[in-house]
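Re: weekly structure request thread

Next one in the queue (251 aa):
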Amino acid sequence: MTNGTALVASGSAPALSEAIEQALVNGDLSKLSVEDRVRLYHAKCTSLGLNPLTNPFLYVNLSGKLVLYATKDCAEQLRKIHGLSITLIDRQRLDDVYIVTARASTPDGRTDESTGAVTIGNLKGDALCNALMKAETKSKRRVTLSICGLGILDETEIETVRGAEPVAFDDPAPTATAARGTVLPSNPRGLSLERRKDGFERFTALYGQAQKMGLKPDTLDGDISDQALVAAVNDLTERIAAAKEPASATA
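Done, posted below.
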């Protein structure tokens, strides 16, 4: 039970398009264009004070709808941003289920509690150890999201939700088998070679699209830094999205 209100969002999110607002109302992001998905992703991260380049959210098909779920990076950033302290206050076994209860507290004294449960059955050795640690992780992640007011699934819960299918894509009309990468994720220490390649491929596709629209985008140098590459991809994505807005919007 939460003591006090949930933590308020920080930052100022950019204005959302009508298509994004409709998707949020319907709880389904599958009908959004690449540009709108990127815009929504960044808006959500900005409102929470999260770094979008660390991939704090990923996509999942859930009951026929495309939604976001929180990753490990999301919970870790939220704990740091809000100075959260997490304490494991109870561990118990009920038949074949192992349950861990975690309590989160904020610097101003607010608290919240959540449980993490796993089925252990006849598990032994490393399999049992992993299950016990997973229960602890689930409880910590769930209480972090709860006290921050995020009513979304954590990645530790996805595999136990019937029909849930994680999705990664860059196609305007994504499916569960689409390719990866709407938002170009990275590691704070730099992009992996694979992600850097993805970045150049994404920029090349956007570059051709921008040229057809008469935007005259700048080219990239082969030795461009990871940070500049990510910025170039996101900037060109936003320019293309802005150019597609109805002319009446700027009249």
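The first helix runs from residue 18 to 26. Residues 185-246 form one domain.
Next request, please.
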